[in-house]
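We store amino acids, tokens; thus:
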Amino acid sequence: MAPSHRPALARTLLVLAALVLPVALLTGLTGCSWGGIDNSKAIGTPASPDEPQRVRIPSLGVDSPLIRLGTDRHTGRPVRQPPKDHSDTAGWCTGSALPGRPGTAVLVGHRDDGDAGGVFRRLGTLREGATVDVERGDGKVLRFTVTAVRTLDGDAAFATRKEHPAAGSTGPPERALRLVACAGEGPGGPSGHRFLVVDALLRS
């Protein structure tokens, strides 16, 4: 290349770099779907005494702190799983009920991170009657008993409708826990994504 062309080429490369680098950085920041994670607190540090800080499933050997999963700051949609670099850590969906309160508290985790199993890798082996313990920020441990293990499609897996006694009922409202992990794609491909769901009720 002629020497006279080199300065012009250098200027062109600098201009391209100035244009491309910010776009790349912006993509790296906004392309991520983990905007709902509360990074102001360490993992396992709840924002209040009655929020969950840890989940234990003795029969599976699970003992994990919890990440707070809120709403994605870019899409406004609920964050439904911990980031891949925390595949060994479960998360609590802050839009669901507080564990032990009327309604359904939702905890989510990965089963497979591509290299090794995630925190909920053995969730499918859980059986009715198994125990799931949730520790709150104040140290109180809530004990739940598994009532069902099933596979559900899409939004049905994350249903958090609060349960209340039927009209005229004198029984207390249910205090439920739901564990959710990816179960792969259904027959319809990505649009038919399925989730492994474990339901449990508070016992003590």
Remarks:
- The CA atoms of residues 102 and 108 lie 19 Å apart.
- Strands lie at 52-57, 62-69, 90-93, 103-108, 131-136, 141-153, 175-186, 189-202.
